[in-house]
Amino acid sequence: MNRAMRAARVLICAALAGMLAAPSCGAAELVERGVAVWEGSEAEFGGFSGLAVDADGGGFLAINDIGWIYHVVVRRDEDGRIAAIGTDWHRELPDKPGSQIDSFERDAEALTRGADGTLYLGYESLTRVVSLRQPDLVPTYLHDWQRFRPLWGNESIEALAARPEGGLIAVLEVAGEDGGYATLMWNGGDWTDGAPIDGAGDYAASDATFGPDGRLYLLERRVTFFGNFATRIRRFDWNGNGAVGVGEVLLETDPGTLDNMEGICVWRDAADRSIVTLISDDNFRSLQTTIVAEYEVRE
After folding, report:
1. Contact 119, 113 (CB under 8 A)
2. By C-alpha distance, which of 166, 67, 143, 58 is closest to 111?
3. Which among 133, 196, 242, 266 could disulfide-bond with 211, CB atoms 3.0 to 4.6 Å apart, if both were Cys?
4. pLDDT at 3 over 60
């Protein structure tokens, strides 16, 4: 090969490498809009793992690992960024009329709001899914109480999302041997096994939601040896039966950038921007903080 041919080959390889390294023209990204600290002095404050933002972004519902639900008021500046967060009300979730949840039944992990405003709640430990009647929040079980007995424990339903076509999808926390998260589908009757969500890698699922674009947003976390958390958000096309492909990575942080992010909601603000809101689980530890982080989806 002569010198001219070698030079041409180098230029072609460099051009190809640049094309591979460059982001796709159609790729989306998350642009940070701020990280706010939410504080509370009561003993039951903290451990938040499920989130449902109000339609106008002026507040949200959050549930925690010891079975309490909070409604929060969010004050925003003129550009829609969080200026302040304050607790509006909070109460312990009842198990059934006239009784409270005992210790094995408390582990509320996932919260979603249906198109008609119905709240749905997923639990670990005594694994179950319920709908919540407002304003008294009395639960209605969406299955026989032993339906998920094989999943009883601390690594079961971690995410719950109201599907755009109706019904629910639940996502298990830890990937199976095939490298995908097992899912469960509810269409108003019994629960059935859904298609797995691919591409977990060394992450674990922590929540999921559908955005205004009809796509599934999956929140994942990874814990380092030193106890720092890395956060990943992937977005999937949805075909009505499951997530398509391995998803588009919208966000992947270095360990310690955020905290133990366990709740996600995607909503559209008054300026027609798609906003991703995340909330952290501080594990009721003084060294961790409850934060609410927001991003804009830029297409």
Report:
1. yes
2. 67
3. 266
4. no
